[in-house]
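QA checklist item 7 of 12: single-chain prediction sanity check.
[x] sequence parsed
[x] length recorded as 340
[x] structure emitted
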Amino acid sequence: MDSVEALNEIAFWLERDLSPTFKVLAFRRAAGLIAGLDADELADRVHDGRLRAMKGIGGRTAEVIGQSLYGLPDYLDNLRQRGEAPLAAGGSELRQALRGDLHTHSDWSDGTTSIDLILATAGMLGREYLALTDHSPTLTVAHGLTADRLEEQLGVVAGLTAASPAGGARLLTGIEVDILENGRLDQSAEMLARLDVVVASVHSKLRDDSITMTRRMLAGIRDLHTNVLGHCTGRLVGGGRGTRPPSTFDAERVFAACAENNVAVEINSRPERQDPPEELIGLALAAGCLFSIDTDAHAPGHLDFLSYGAERAAAAGVPPERIVTTWPVEKLLDWSRAGR
């Protein structure tokens, strides 16, 4: 088995299981260290002990590399067997109907890996399409993309698209754009008009009063570039960042605006978010909203979190036809580009 692929797949399974970041990075770092070695050089280093002497190669990663020369490494085999069990108990039929993911991040903003590794993992998981939605410039803590950096990223995406193998996941251009305090979107209209998918989210002043937050969200939803309202309450129910209560806003007005403006309400699949809460999914459903089940992945292993979102959507009775990420890519793009 290819040693680099084995190390990266182990990192994927560990991320999927929410293992400590240092463990994930150990395997991904080792993959980067040996990526430039040809097969003969790698085998020589394994057999004469020079591999273990390389800085950044530990006992476990050396073992995986050595075993990969002759077959499937034991550590990876064990992880694959554990991964056969679904992440979520419910929503399996809906999960099978999902074709894509409209909310993912790379190391261009606050994701952990390159765009090509995210794309390759999406293909491994059978996704038909994936929108790259790195953050916008105001979110400096997440290294948000200025217009110039977004322009550069569009060139990288075009290159990856041209080089993608037939049958792989299609990479869509996109952004997770902040809805600013005045309700404007945090990127120029010219740049937003060039993108396939725009996810609009609130990331600041999450404890503002309901009237202020409602006004802000309505303005963002009514912008003709907005396709998806991301993690609408901003809540955190667990995880390394602790907990955070949901923002307060007039949900009936917000979801009515989403329905009127053809904006999908995101069902965010990250286990620490579970956003929106169940009662708000019900309100959005009653308002006639579309939905988008997304991972908000910041690492390749997070791309399998769609199972959590599918479970919650199925439990709420959301019809598959009202979930845009069940649509074929051409129908999705007709919807996302309409009105721009």
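[x] summary fact logged: The first strand starts at residue 100 and ends at 104.
[ ] second reviewer sign-off
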